Amino acid sequence: MRDREMARPDAVGRCVGALVDVLIDETRPALETCERDIVKDYVRATLAAMPDYFRLGFRVLALAFELAPLPVYGHRFTRLAAAEQRRHVDAWRRSRIGPRRSMIALYATFACYGLYSLPSAQGCAPATRIAA
Amino acid sequence: MNAGNQIETEILVIGSGPGGAVSGTLFAETGRHVTMVEEGDHLALEAAPHFSREEMLLKYRNAGVGVALGRHKLAWVEGRCVGGGSEVNRGLYHRTPGYVLDDWRRRFAVHDLDLVGMTPHFAACEAVARVEYAGNAASDMSRRLQQGAQAQGWLAIEAPRLYRYDHDRGGGVKQSMSATFVRRFIEAGGTLLPATRIARLRRMNGHWIAEGTRRNPDGTRRAVTFRARIVVAACGAVQTPALLRRSGLSHNIGDSLRFHPMVKVVAEFDRDVNHPDDFDPVHQVKEFEPRFGMGCSISTPAMLGVALSGRPDHWNLVAERWRRMGIYYVQSGGGTASVRNLPGFEDPIVRVRFSQGDLSVLGEGLRRLCEALFAAGAQRIYPCLAGYPDLHSPGDLARMPSVLHASDGNMTSVHVFSSCPMGEDDRVSAANSFGKVHGADGLYINDASLLCGPTSVNPQGTVMAVAHRNAAEALTRRFH
Ligand SMILES: Cc1cc2nc3c(=O)[nH]c(=O)nc-3n(C[C@H](O)[C@H](O)[C@H](O)COP(=O)(O)OP(=O)(O)OC[C@H]3O[C@@H](n4cnc5c(N)ncnc54)[C@H](O)[C@@H]3O)c2cc1C
Predict the structure, then answer these.
(1) Within 13 Å, how many C-alpha atoms sit on residue B53's CB side?
(2) Do A125 and B408 lie within an 8 Å CB cutoff?
């Protein structure tokens, strides 16, 4: 069931994927697509496994995030150009509305953890024993 | 005696973490017919690298997302697999300090609880799950904290771990529950059912009926029911009260959850202190316990990345300097939380409250931690708290607020307990001095929920020894 969700993300999954792309671009713009996909799958898997009431809340927030640019840019988030996507993420990150900030903070934390856990980041990474 | 999805057993242990695994093993070894169910999977220790993304998804409850809501939120994590938290933790080990047991005995009227009485139970657990010191093998990053504390004239020690070090070849074997007690449980004839979650309990004709589901390999679930004379709830300090409350039991259940809330800093030294093959850090500062304690965290590049993620250019910072960096924490016993079920949802909600006093203890602890790290040679300290400035010298400590300013996600915890305290004073306790739930025949709690308050030291040793003590007592009393 979860594997299928990973393979063909729904509207929320696609929005989360696009958001994670923007977050990755902030630190690793040159990251390969296949590695981006690993990070996105990890973040989506985390969303799928989080407590059910948070999951519901974060799904609703993701839909609101997806649709919020419509009045301003005439397109939903996933259809915006890269620069507009960045501006939209920034606006939510700095928003006065707590849940908007919390949403970006949560995805930023998990995207960051996913990013640093990539095999290509492991040049500096733990071998098998550091956390024995 | 099983008919379809109806399973008959004498004793049903729910949860296979330190509390459940120790209880189940004792019962099985005395010839009782015991079934131990566990919501998570039965996975090898090496199923995922320790503290990795894969481990979060495989072995942690809710993939590591747990947030206690309140004005100051607290993020916490728990294990969810055979062995519970012992599979994912570092196994830092302590016997409970005598003053903690004395305090519980007095405030909750717990019978027969003191260090002398507990000693054989600690020893019995340590004979199965071995406890060892790293000694010379401890990492530089870990030693730095001890050196800094000693330079300040403070007491700092090396904590032993539930771990068997291989000093010749490096590495070693983690003494988690799956590697120790759960094995003995199975050898003694106990039945372990992983991927099985109990949703609620009800009483029928002098027996407990436990209703739940088993997860099939494809992720679908099928209903399963157990009928048992004795039930031991050992689901951990959040899930045990959630299960009991779903089952209509609420007297002092889920009203007093406690944590060891923790805040972290990253310290950067003038030379390498963090090496890929290092053992997990083990040094701790004891000088200020029980108000607050300090230690060194797992400091992989991934953990450093998350710790520094609020800083611009964190990627380059970590890539260039991670070997010179370590993550250190201060933790207290402040804050009180409740556990409640929400209609229509499976996961319980936790609400936490911190007093000004709690936050000023952490504020002071944070300052002391930075003092020790500067004394240990730190060149720069990055507090993992939004809005806190980077510190370049002890003089900068004056710029830190004396009361902790913590925003979302800055306060974390890996230790949860005390949601169903034990004791004879039923105005404050949920179960008697040995874990038998007040007013419920044949129903026991035997996990971290029972502890009457913070242990101030790492709690797993206490959870195991208390579980051992209570299980032995139940056998002696023949569950009456
Ligand atoms: C990352 C981390 C690091 C830690 N580090 C240390 C350390 O170094 N030293 C130390 O002393 N302590 C440490 N701890 C804490 C320690 O692991 C816990 O105190 C201990 O595991 C608590 O044991 P428990 O039996 O109460 O609960 P748990 O270990 O949480 O076990 C409960 C089990 O019950 C299962 N369960 C829950 N609900 C149900 C249900 N309804 N049906 C079936 N099964 C269910 C859960 O899946 C879980 O496996 C750490 C914990 C974590 C998470």
Answers:
(1) 26
(2) no
According to CATH, where is 3.30.410 located in chain B? 135-172+261-413
Distance CA B220, CA B345 (A): 18
Q: What is the pLDDT of residues B391-406, one digit of tens each?
A: 999 999 998 999 998 7
B17 CA from centroid of ligand 1 (Å): 5
What pLDDT does A119 receive? 75
Tell me, yes or no, if B387 comes closer than 8 A to chain A by beta carbon. no
Distance CA B223, CA B419 (A): 28
Residues on chain B touching A122 (C-beta within 8 angstroms): 301
For the stretch B99-139, pLDDT in tens is: 999 999 999 999 999 999 999 999 999 999 999 999 989 99
**How confident is the prediction for chain B on average, in pLDDT?**
96
Q: How confident is the model at residue A124 (pLDDT cuts 50, 70, 90)?
A: very low
Task: Please judge whether B57 and A42 are an interchain contact, meaning their C-beta atoms are less than 8 angstroms apart.
Answer: yes
Interface of B with A in 304-363 (CB under 8 A): 304-306, 309, 314-315, 318-319, 322-323, 342, 345-347, 349
Q: Are A25 and A112 in contact (CB under 8 A)?
A: no
Measured between CB atoms, does A42 come within 8 Å of chain B?
yes
Residue B311: per-residue pLDDT: 86
Q: Is the pLDDT of residue B359 over 50?
A: yes
d(CA B246, CA B77): 22
Check if the beta carbon of residue B236 is closer than 8 Å to that of residue B15.
Answer: yes
Judge if pTM exceeds 0.90. yes
SS3 B196: strand
Local structure of B264: helix, strand or coil: strand
Q: In this structure, what token pair is assigned to residue B144?
A: 């730095």
Query: What's chain B's length in residues?
Result: 480
Q: How far is B436 from chain A (nearest CA, A)?
A: 30
Residues 6+ away with beta carbon under 8 Å from B72: B335, B352, B354, B359, B406, B411
- The ipTM value here is 0.90
Report the C-alpha gap between B54 and A106 in whole angstroms: 18
pLDDT of residue A127: 32
**By CB neighbour count within 10 A (0-12 exposed, 13-18 middle, 19+ buried), where does A30 fall?**
exposed
pLDDT at B366: 97
In terms of Cα–Cα distance, which of B307, B302, B335 is closest to B319? B302
Q: What is the mean pLDDT of residues A65-74?
A: 96
CATH 3.50.50.60 domain locations along chain B: 2-42+81-91+94-130+176-255+417-476
Ligand 1 centroid from CA B86, angstroms: 6
Mean pLDDT across the stretch B283-307? Answer: 96
**C-alpha B296 – ligand 1 centre gap (Å):** 20
CATH superfamily of B2-42+81-91+94-130+176-255+417-476: FAD/NAD(P)-binding domain (3.50.50.60)
**Cross-chain Cβ contact A113/B220 below 8 Å:** no
B115 φ/ψ angles, rounded to the nearest 5 degrees: -65, -40
Nearest Cα residue to atom 19 of ligand 1: B460
CATH fold of B135-172+261-413 reads Cholesterol Oxidase; domain 2 (3.30.410)
Distances, alpha carbon B277 to alpha carbons B296, B300, B346, in Å: 16, 11, 40
How far, in Å, CA of B118 to CA of B115, rounded?
5
Mutant choice from B89, B306, B316 vs A, greatest count of A C-beta within 10 A = B306
